Please model this.
Amino acid sequence: MALQTTAILDREHLSDTLWNLEEARLKGVPADHPGVCDALDWVASRAGLPGAYKEGLHAPTEADYSRRWYTPTGENGSPSGAGLSHVLAEESLRALALWRPEQEWGRHPMMLRVRDRFGAMPYDHLGSPGTFCCARCSVARWRALAAGRPQGWDEVVSDGLRSWSRECLESGHWSRYPYYYTLLALSELPLAQVQGVRSALRASAERRIGRLSDTDQQSRFRKRALEWVLA
Model:
């Protein structure tokens, strides 16, 4: 596939680079593609830079903070600097775990520290292991855990899903969790309880999918989430 490096790597925005990497992965672009390699190297290089949510995690750019656009589906909720840096850090871990599970990044000392962090779960939670300070950050955490699959990841995510399911009404709506971003996360979770919620979500997905185009990146991610419900 002929894909220019600049189509994936955006040195001005960690967020855009991550979403470009995800679209490339879904299109089947190989991990050794030069554009993918450059983008992953740049994401990895942001570990421990000023502005990171925690020591050793991946920092957004100044442009990310200015725009505050940090979910692939374009749902920001109530943006904050901490929320932005946390979500993009988790999404960075997810990207590196998916693209480089056993390659040079997997042997990088920072990834070993990340694995240690995952292994020490629960961490920084409020009330239960599967929920974080806010719903959006919880969803980002589920996505990273499902990609890395450290020991105990499924118990943590299952706990978070129980919290989410208490808000998922028969109408398929919920209040705190970002709709499309949550669906995108659910579509990636190989857990039995996820399959059971599709029927509750189908009606709302059918209403929404006809209004979406695939002319912009956010709509494409939203459409993918809805198509999973309706598959």
